[in-house]
Amino acid sequence: MSWTDAAGLAGVVMILVAYAGAALGHLDPKGFWSLLANFVGAGLILVSLLMANFNLSSTVMEGSWAVVALAGLVRLAILRRRG
């Protein structure tokens, strides 16, 4: 297994654990840890896609996933600064 495959699989595991945690009520889907896991996970999958196995639709999906998670993290940072 190449390092890019390992990175991509680690990203998949991170996203699935975050999703399962949210779906089962153990993790707040709008919370820091869930958003961070989704952002890092999508980033690792993007590394795998961009460095080794490019697939346009998967790249767009993971890029979008990362942007949404990052927007949530920025929102949390702004809310914490305000209050």
Structure description:
This protein is mainly alpha-helical. The chain has helices at 3-23, 32-51, 56-82. Helix 1 (3-23) runs antiparallel to helix 2 (32-51) and helix 2 (32-51) packs antiparallel against helix 3. The protein is globular.
Count of individual beta strands? 0
Structural class of the helix and strand makeup?
mainly alpha
Tally of contiguous helical segments: 3
Roughly how many Å apart are the termini?
47 Å
How are helices and strands ordered from N to C? HHH
Average predicted confidence as pLDDT: 96
Main beta-sheet annotation: none
Helix fraction?
Answer: over 70%
Low-confidence stretches: none
Strand and helix layout:
Elements: H1 3-23, H2 32-51, H3 56-82
What keyword list fits this structure?
82% helix; mainly alpha; 83 residues
